[in-house]
């Protein structure tokens, strides 16, 4: 197994365990076992469980943002692009292993000492907010920076609530409700047709 393949195998195995069982409930030995590698091999790729978690969070975030950008680009300009994040969430929910937001799940397990993981989660959430701001700016005509932030922030909060609540209730109604509320955020704006 090549270096890159081993590295990715560790991240993939840890990702599945962290997302399904939680960060704190997943031990290094379990990651080693699921990866089918020796302990020394794991430590030649990652110094700590926290470093594995950083790679997991980065991989999940990059994959999500890539999927979201693809969803947006494939939709007609205007309302369809503004609501694309909820369509992506609906598809994510339908996946067999849906466990809610990987970042918020990890955040809920962090101690105040785990500042590196907290900073990474904050960075990822800010990147999502900035991207939603771009989507709003591309789809609403003559919009101010303040209005862009208000609408993109509202979409972001509806999305985060919907992903958490759909996991909590094991039902997709929060996704549909958030999607139906979101247009109220830009009801008084001139949306691209």
Automatic annotation (TrEMBL):
Which GO molecular function entries does the Swiss-Prot or TrEMBL record give?
A: DNA binding
The taxonomy runs: Bacteria, Pseudomonadati, Bacteroidota, Flavobacteriia, Flavobacteriales
- Residue limits of the HTH tetR-type domain? 4-64
Annotation: DNA-binding region? 27-46
Q: Which residues form a coiled coil?
A: none
Keyword terms, alphabetized: DNA-binding
One Pfam family, short name: TetR_N
Tell me what this protein is called. Answer: TetR family transcriptional regulator
Q: Does the keyword NAD apply?
A: no
The question of whether DNA-binding is a record keyword is answered with: yes
């Amino acid at each position: 197994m090549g270096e890159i393949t081993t590295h990715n195998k560790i991240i993939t195995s840890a990702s599945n365990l962290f997302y399904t069982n939680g960060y704190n409930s997943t031990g290094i030995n379990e990651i080693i076992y699921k990866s089918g590698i020796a302990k020394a091999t794991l430590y030649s790729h990652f110094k700590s469980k926290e470093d594995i978690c950083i790679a997991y969070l980065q991989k999940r975030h990059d994959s999500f943002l890539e999927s979201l950008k693809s969803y947006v680009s494939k939709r007609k300009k205007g309302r369809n692009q503004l609501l694309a994040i909820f369509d992506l969430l609906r598809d994510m929910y339908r996946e067999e292993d849906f466990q809610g937001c990987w970042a918020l799940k990890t955040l809920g397990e962090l101690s105040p000492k785990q500042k590196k993981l907290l900073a990474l989660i904050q960075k990822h959430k800010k990147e999502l907010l900035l991207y939603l701001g771009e989507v709003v700016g591309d789809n609403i005509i003559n919009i101010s920076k303040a209005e862009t932030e208000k609408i993109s922030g509202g979409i972001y909060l509806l999305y985060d609530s919907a992903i958490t609540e759909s996991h909590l209730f094991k039902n997709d109604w929060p996704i549909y409700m958030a999607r139906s509320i979101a247009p109220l955020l830009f009801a008084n704006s001139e949306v691209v047709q």
